[in-house]
Amino acid sequence: MGQKNGFDPNDPIGNLIKARDATLDAWAKAMIDLVNTETFARWVGATLDSYLIASAPLQNLINTSMKTSLARLNLPSREELTTLARRVTNIEMRLDDIEIKLDQLAHALRTQTPVIVEMLAEQLEQNKQEGVELNGMEQRLAALDHKADQMLQLIERLQQAALEPVDASQKRRKAPRPAPPDPAPPTPEEVKEDHAIEGF
Fold it and tell me: Could you tell me the CA-to-CA distances from 104 to 91, 100, 116, 156 in Å, in that order?
């Protein structure tokens, strides 16, 4: 038997598949034409607005009851979970920034370590030289201090030596000369001798 318009009486299933495909193609074309119209877009917008307006009180009631139920069950609400997720995201971003900065610092330290070590070695050497110079200066200052003490002692001795003759001469001038001893009264024998000499 011949086929007319792709119809095969010996293949009913194939005929059904072809009819289905043709129907779907017709519906698809019709729906595409309908959806692409401005009237359909307005109708969909008005329907969604009316649905949202009608469902807003119910949605508020559901949210309130859900918050109450979660609070009684000691469970976090959606807002709390959202806030926690934002904080975790911020912490992750900050940790990433810190990791990048640490990598940069580690790279800078690796590249600058020889220079820093050399600078520290130079500074230590300079400190040692300054320490030696300071020790030499301290020794010199100690020697000068000792010499100054010796000079002061010599000056004091010279002053004492210069003052001693003056003090001795003043003592000699100020000291009174000893008076001659008073003559002892003559004894009777001496008086007799004197008379004898006078009479002689």
Answer: 20, 6, 17, 73
